[in-house]
């Protein structure tokens, strides 16, 4: 069958099929005399496997590992389980980060008046400069958040929570002590 029919039968777009072939996730398929790809039922089965793995959020590298294990009839199921549980842990970490981001944004939105005034805590947080307010942005804070910029060493930096944005939810709210 041609690539369009293989795409329809597998649920993987023709563009992605070509991509997976180009990176070696799937082997090159045979071609007709006219040069068109010719997919077998076995190829479509492999594409369905990839689509299901992709739907579960596995990376290309993880899909390659799973495909290799699928084809290895002597595989240990422990190897498959290890990959799955590592992926579960990653998904749970991402879910926690998304929940924290959601709570932070909800908190900021809850403190925004949403009226005609220009003052807005959302914009204020997004526009904050890296570093601390007393000008010690050139010094890296230690693990406790101290930068050494004040004589009493008690000055703390906000620890970045979400990548480069540095937005952190209200600590009291996050720890449940309203």
Automatic annotation (TrEMBL):
Residues 81-108 form a coiled coil. It is found in: Cytoplasm. GO terms for molecular function: copper ion binding; DNA binding; DNA-binding transcription factor activity. GO terms for biological process: positive regulation of DNA-templated transcription. InterPro entries: CueR, DNA-bd_dom_put_sf, MerR-type_HTH_dom, MerR_fam, Tscrpt_reg_MerR_DNA-bd. This is Cu(I)-responsive transcriptional regulator. Residues 1-69 form the HTH merR-type domain. PANTHER family: HEAVY METAL-DEPENDENT TRANSCRIPTIONAL REGULATOR HI_0293-RELATED, REDOX-CYCLING DRUG-SENSING TRANSCRIPTIONAL ACTIVATOR SOXR. Its main location: cytoplasm. It comes from Marinobacterium mangrovicola.
